[in-house]
Amino acid sequence: MSDGWSCRASGSRGLTGALLEPFGAATRHDRASMLDAARQIPRTLADLAVPRPGGGSFRLTDHHVRAALAPPESVTADTPFAWSARTARRALGLTSLRALVTGAVRSPIDGMALAIDDAVRAARQGENAASPMDRWLAGLPPASRAAVQAGAVTWATRVWCAVDWTAFEEPPTIGRDHWWDSPHSSLLALRSRAEIRSVARDQAGSPLSVHLVVLGGPRRATIKFELSAAAVVEVLCARRSLPPGRMVGWWPDSGHLVTVEIDQLALHDGVTAVARTLASVTATPAEYEEATRAAA
Amino acid sequence: MVLVAPQQEQAPPAQSEEPAQVAQPAAARDEVLALLRDGSGQRPRFDPGLSGGLRAWLEDAAADLVARRGEDAAPLFLGPRLLWDGPAPAADPAGRPDDPFPAEWVRSCLVRALFTQVVTTGQVEDPLGDALDALRVDPSRADMVRHLDELPQAARAALAPSLRTHVENLMHLTPRFAPAWLPRTHDRVAIPLAGGRVVLSGVFDLLVGAPVPGRATLCALGLTTGGRWAQARTALHYLALLETLRSGTPPFRLALLHSAAGRYGVEDVLEEHLRTIVSHVVARLSALGPGDV
């Protein structure tokens, strides 16, 4: 794991450079041995996810990990999920960014108009693909919808301006979350959230996956554990994709970056974080669903 | 930055033999836009070390403050109200226990919601209704919405004309930015100092332009709904400082819109502004004691 906070400007070169920086010569060998070592992880995690009285399945997201690792004084009660400008901005913002990256639109505002129009149309025409968020948006008065649109435009514009989009070998994947379902326990699934996924190469030219995570809230000492938990999911899913390389967390509010190179130490930290999260889980299944949706 | 009236209001009436022109709402916002664009082909470069120097100055003051408060004290979140003497310089202004929703604060929130709508859609149908609808999708304003919903009809009716005046002025003053200018409202900045134990924060009402490393390319528009002009200008300089710490370069130009008076001011950001405001913040941090926040 890299050695800590990097205090860099949020200019597109700094963030993109941190994400796409070439890996060292030994990286691929290290990753291969790490993947071998990771074979034990599914069994270890399944053993931790034991059924509890009154408990349901464990579908853990970054939201659960963050809450479990937070110091006691900063823990706030989970509020039931509800759609709002805040909870909708990421989904809408990602749709806008996808349209920008493919060249379908020229600005985040244009992308957002398209995203909201599509959502409202899908809901009003009763299309099967209409999501709960689409139906919520369609039912809003115009002024509420404008407020949602404004929040999502700001979210998307910050990401759009922070990344040098010309630096990618091929268009990056925007906002596809990865879920890992435990092969040993039907009770356990883990999610890795990333806003941008792409490829960086080691010195031999071999590709490894890199993942940009947009962070919220204050800087916190536990962030590396949070990113390492996501790295565990990337490692566990890696058998069907590229070997995992690095996670970069970025706070748009402050421009700070934190980089986690996915190595054996990161795996250890990630498993520790997941274990602590599982241990802290006492909520009912219904509350879990609420928290999972809140984190989406 | 000088508070100015739109040119059409400054012109002496009936000096021409032509009939007096009816004020065209587009004119004032075009003035603001022209002032923001003026000289935009020559965006200034700032010393790359400027941001680090300002940060170092603030870090020293923050470290002293942390030493006075104790290493284990909860993180301190400080917004623009830090800049003035007062009992609670916290990041999010809130009312006192005996008056949780002061009228000025409520009006400010409603007008800001309408400003966002003006920027986003260019139109407002029903100022009070639209502002409330906008706040209804912001869970952090749920209590304020409940307070407003429960106001007696007479109190709500009294609020509406005031909001209409603000909206008319905003429609008059707010440029219609093309999407390529990347306008974004309510852009929050939070700069941690002393390892996150002190956080300086603020919110840009509107930012336009794309950041370019080493070059000042952003314009920031702030809104004041009726407070003192000099105070609002200082708050905008504070935000310019935070942007300098976030991205390494300050905004290129600032505009301040006075939604109650229908006036505006536009000015370039100078190093002198940043040094003055950082000196002011340092003085205020130094004056805070363990029990002040």
Give the total of domains of chain B.
2
> What's the SSE pattern of chain B?
HHHEHHHHEEEHEEH
> Main β-sheet of chain B: number of strands, strand sense, barrel status?
6 strands, mixed
Counting helices, strands and paired strands, the structural category of chain B is: alpha/beta
How would you write the strand order of the largest sheet of chain A?
Answer: 1-9-8-7-6-3
- Contiguous runs where pLDDT drops below 50 for at least 5 residues of chain A: 1-10
Helix content of chain B: 40-55%
Share of residues in strands of chain B = 5-15%
List keywords for this structure.
A: 296 residues; 2 domains; six-stranded mixed β-sheet; 9 strands; globular; disordered N terminus; B: 293 residues; alpha/beta; 9 helices; 6 strands
Topology of helices and strands:
The complex is a heterodimer of chains A (296) and B (293).
Chain A: E1 5-6, H1 12-20, H2 27-37, H3 41-48, E2 58-60, H4 62-69, H5 85-101, H6 108-124, H7 132-138, H8 142-162, E3 173-174, E4 178-181, E5 188-192, E6 196-201, E7 207-214, H9 223-237, E8 244-250, E9 257-261, H10 264-280, H11 285-295
Parallel strand pairs in A: 2-5, 7-8
Antiparallel strand pairs in A: 1-9, 3-6, 4-5, 6-7, 8-9
Helix pairs in contact in A: 4-9, 4-10, 5-6, 5-8, 6-7, 6-8, 9-10
Chain B: H1 7-10, H2 25-37, H3 50-69, E1 76-78, H4 103-121, H5 127-136, H6 142-149, H7 153-173, E2 184-193, E3 198-208, E4 219-224, H8 229-247, E5 253-258, E6 263-268, H9 271-287
Parallel strand pairs in B: 1-3, 4-5
Antiparallel strand pairs in B: 2-3, 3-4, 5-6
